[in-house]
C-alpha cells in the first residue's frame, strides 16, 4: 500500500492518508498477476503510461457495459458510436492492445526459456495447451481467459476489502475484536514492528482459526456483495419455485445487494453490521449459498471463493495488526458507483494510524 503523504494529527498521531480503493486494487492485481502470468506488468509497479491506460480502460469498460442494463438506447449509441458505447469501444481497443502484447511477450519468453518454472503460471499453461489445438485456442480465446480471471478475481476481492475497511471504521469495536483475534491466533506481540516475521506467521492453521474475521468478511459481503446484480437467460420455458412462468429467452435477474438486506431473509436486524450472526460458540456457521448469494449458488458458484477469503484474510490481518483505520472525513457520505462490480464512489479515504504509536 502506498500512502501518498504523511501528516501529524492534532493528537500527535501519525496519520497516513490512503485512497484505499485504488491502492488495494493495485495490490490485488499484483497478486493476481502471479496466477495469470509471471511477466512483470509494468503498470502495476511503475505506472507506465500503457499500464495506466489499461487500468483506466478496464474500469471504463466495466462502467459502460453496466449501462447496457439500464439504457434503452445503447444499441443506437453503439451503431452511431457515441456516448457510453463509443467509450466502451475505445476501452476494448486499449484492453485488447495490452493483453495481446502480454500474450505475444509470454509466447516469446516460453520459446526462449526451457526452464519449467517459467511455465508455472496460468497463461503459460494455457499457451502450452494451445499448441495442441491452435485453431480453437487462438489469441482471442487466451485474451478472454485473461480478462475473465481479472474481472472475476481482481475487482471483486479488492472492492470487498475496501467495503470491509469502511465497515470497520463505522464499527470500531469490531475492528478491535479482530485485532485481538489476530494477536491471540498469531501470538504476536502487539507492539512488534517486524512486518516480515508477522506475515510469515500467517500460516494455514492461523487462517483457519480466524473465525471472527471470517464472520466479519462474510457480513461485509452480505451487505456489499461484489457482484450486486446477477443475471441468467432461460434456455427453455420454465416455472420458478414460486410458480412464476418464464419463457425461453427471458432474462432473469437477482439482486444480491437487495437480498442481503431483506429482513425476511436475514431478520429484523438485516441492515445492521453484526459479524456475531455468523458465529455459534465462536465458530463460523456457513449459510446456504442460496441465502448468502454473494458468491452465486448452484453449479456455477464462484470457483475462487476459498481463494478470495484467504487473500482477504491475509491482507486484512497484515493491515489491522499494524494500523488502526478511521475515516479521513466521518461526515463524508460513502456511496457506491454504478458498475458491474460494487465499488465505492470516489474511493475510500482513510487515516491509517500505526498501532505501535498508540
Ligand atoms: C470477494 C470475492 C469474490 C466474489 C464476491 C465473487 C463472486 C462471484 C460470483 C457472484 C460469481 C458468479 C458470476 C456469474 O456466473 O454470473 C463468480 C464466478 C466466478 N468467480 Fe468469483 N468472486 C470472488 C472472487 C473470485 C476470485 C479471487 C476468483 C479467482 C481467482 C474467482 C473466480 C471465479 C470464476 C472462475 C467464476 C466463474 C465460475 C463459473 O462460471 O463456473 N472469483 N464469482
Report on this model:
Helix 5 crosses helix 7. The strands form 5 sheets. A 4-stranded antiparallel beta sheet has the order 1-2-12-9. It has a two-stranded antiparallel ribbon with strand order 3-6. Strands 4-5 form a two-stranded antiparallel sheet. It is 52% helix and 11% strand. The longest helix has 32 residues. It has a single domain, classed as Cytochrome P450 (Cytochrome p450, Orthogonal Bundle), CATH 1.10.630.10. The N terminus is likely disordered. By secondary structure, it is an alpha+beta fold. The protein is globular and about 55 Å long. The site of protoporphyrin IX containing FE has 18 residues, from helix 7 and helix 14.
Write a concise keyword list for the protein shown above.
globular; Cytochrome p450; 52% helix; alpha+beta; 14 helices; disordered N terminus; 358 residues; single chain; binds protoporphyrin IX containing FE
Give the structure's gist in a few sentences:
The chain is an alpha+beta fold. It has helices spanning 20-36, 42-46, 49-67, 74-80, 83-112, 122-130, 139-170, 172-186, 195-200, 204-209, 211-223, 256-259, 263-266, 305-322, and strands spanning 7-8, 14-19, 229-233, 238-239, 245-246, 251-255, 279-280, 283-284, 323-327, 336-337, 343-344, 349-354. Helix 4 packs across helix 5 and helix 5 (83-112) packs across helix 7.
Task: Annotate the secondary structure layout.
Elements: E1 7-8, E2 14-19, H1 20-36, H2 42-46, H3 49-67, H4 74-80, H5 83-112, H6 122-130, H7 139-170, H8 172-186, H9 195-200, H10 204-209, H11 211-223, E3 229-233, E4 238-239, E5 245-246, E6 251-255, H12 256-259, H13 263-266, E7 279-280, E8 283-284, H14 305-322, E9 323-327, E10 336-337, E11 343-344, E12 349-354
Antiparallel strand pairs: 1-2, 2-12, 3-6, 4-5, 7-8, 9-12, 10-11
The chain binds protoporphyrin IX containing FE.
Amino acid at each position: 500500500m502506498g500512502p501518498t503523504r504523511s501528516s501529524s494529527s492534532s493528537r500527535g498521531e501519525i496519520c497516513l492518508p490512503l485512497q484505499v480503493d485504488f491502492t488495494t486494487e493495485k495490490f490485488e492485481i499484483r497478486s493476481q498477476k502471479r496466477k495469470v502470468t509471471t511477466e512483470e506488468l509494468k503498470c502495476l509497479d511503475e505506472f507506465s503510461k500503457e499500464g495506466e491506460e489499461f487500468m483506466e480502460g478496464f474500469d471504463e469498460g466495466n462502467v459502460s457495459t453496466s449501462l447496457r442494463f439500464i439504457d434503452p438506447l445503447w444499441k443506437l449509441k453503439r451503431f452511431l458510436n457515441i456516448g457510453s458505447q463509443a467509450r466502451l469501444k475505445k476501452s476494448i481497443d486499449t484492453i485488447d492492445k495490452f493483453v495481446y502484447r502480454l500474450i505475444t511477450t509470454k509466447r516469446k519468453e516460453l520459446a526462449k526459456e526451457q526452464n519449467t518454472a517459467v511455465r508455472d503460471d496460468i497463461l503459460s499453461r494455457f499457451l502450452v495447451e494451445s499448441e495442441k489445438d491452435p485453431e480453437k485456442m487462438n489469441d482471442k480465446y487466451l485474451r478472454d481467459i485473461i480478462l475473465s480471471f481479472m474481472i472475476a478475481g481482481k475487482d471483486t476481492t479488492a472492492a470487498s476489502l475496501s467495503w470491509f475497511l469502511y465497515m470497520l471504521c463505522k464499527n470500531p469495536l469490531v475492528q478491535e475484536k479482530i485485532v485481538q483475534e489476530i494477536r491471540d491466533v498469531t501470538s504476536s506481540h502487539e507492539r512488534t514492528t517486524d512486518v516480515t516475521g508477522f506475515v510469515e506467521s500467517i500460516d494455514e492453521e492461523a487462517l483457519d482459526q480466524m473465525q471472527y474475521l471470517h464472520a466479519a468478511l462474510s457480513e461485509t459481503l452480505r451487505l456489499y456483495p461484489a457482484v450486486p446484480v446477477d443475471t441468467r437467460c432461460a434456455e427453455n420455458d420454465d416455472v420458478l419455485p414460486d410458480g412464476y412462468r418464464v419463457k425461453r429467452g427471458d432474462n432473469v435477474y437477482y439482486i444480491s445487494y437487495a437480498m442481503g438486506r431483506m429482513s425476511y431473509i436475514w431478520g429484523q436486524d438485516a441492515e445492521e453490521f453484526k459479524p456475531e450472526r455468523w458465529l455459534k460458540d465462536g465458530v463460523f456457521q456457513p449459510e446456504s449459498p442460496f441465502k448468502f448469494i454473494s458468491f452465486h449458488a448452484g453449479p456455477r458458484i464462484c470457483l475462487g471463493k476459498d481463494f478470495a477469503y484467504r487473500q482477504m484474510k491475509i491482507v486484512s490481518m497484515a493491515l489491522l495488526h499494524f494500523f488502526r483505520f478511521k475515516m479521513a472525513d466521518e461526515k463524508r457520505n460513502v456511496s457506491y458507483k454504478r458498475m458491474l462490480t460494487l465499488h465505492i464512489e470516489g474511493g475510500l479515504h482513510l487515516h491509517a494510524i500505526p498501532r505501535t504509536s498508540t
